[in-house]
Amino acid sequence: MNQDNNQEMFPLVDEEGNITGAATRGECHSGSKLLHPVVHLHVFNPQGELYLQKRPAWKDIQPGRWDTSVGGHVDLGESVEIALRREAHEELGISGFTPQFLKKYVFESARERELVFSYRTVYDGAILPSDELDSGRFWSLDEIRANVGKGIFTPNFEEEVSWIVSSD
C-alpha cells in the first residue's frame, strides 16, 4: 500500500512566501497550522474541459475526493516554478506546458495551513496519471458547477473553482 512520507521536509513560510523555517510533512499535517507552500495546476484541454484527479484512499489529507489536476508540496530548497513542473510530470506525465499564474492565497483546514500558488494551462498532449492518483478525467465546467457542495470535491478545489472557471 502506498502512503505519504511523514518525514519529508517542507519549508515553512510567511504569507508572502518568505521561508521562515522547516518542518516534516507529519508536523505540517498534524493540526499545527504550520504554513507551508503548495502548487496547484489546473489543466484544461482545448475544448475547455478541466482535468481533475481523484485522490487515493491512502492519502493523509482528503482521501477519495476529486481535486485539482495537479497539486503538491514545494520541497525544501525548491522554487515554486520547479515544484509546479516536477509535480505535473510526477502526477500526470506532462511537460512542455505554459503555466499562467492565477492567484496566491492561504488555505486553512482543521489539519493544515497552506500557502497555495495556483496556475492554469491549456494542454493538448497525452496525460498519463501516476500511481499517486486513484484516477482522473476531464470534466465540463457545467458538470463541475453541478457537483459543487456535494462532498465529492476537496474543500480547497471548491474554494478555487469560482475564479478558475471565471478566468476561462
Task: Describe the protein in words.
The chain is α+β, with helices and mostly antiparallel strands and 168 residues long. The chain has a single domain, classed as Nucleoside Triphosphate Pyrophosphohydrolase, CATH 3.90.79.10. 21% of the residues lie in helices and 33% in strands. It has four helices and nine strands, in the order E-E-H-E-E-E-E-H-E-E-E-H-H. Strand 7 (100-108) and strand 8 form a beta hairpin. The mean pLDDT is 91.
The secondary-structure element order is: EEHEEEEHEEEHH
Query: Could you say how many structural domains there are in total?
Result: 1
Strand content: 25-35%
Which residues form runs of ≥5 with pLDDT under 50? none
The termini sit apart by 38 Å
CATH class bucket: Alpha Beta
CATH topology: Nucleoside Triphosphate Pyrophosphohydrolase
Q: Which CATH-level-2 architecture? A: Alpha-Beta Complex
Biggest beta-sheet profile: 4 strands, mixed
CATH superfamily: Nucleoside Triphosphate Pyrophosphohydrolase
What is the count of helical runs?
4
Shape: globular
Count every beta strand, where a strand is a DSSP E run of 2 or more residues: 9
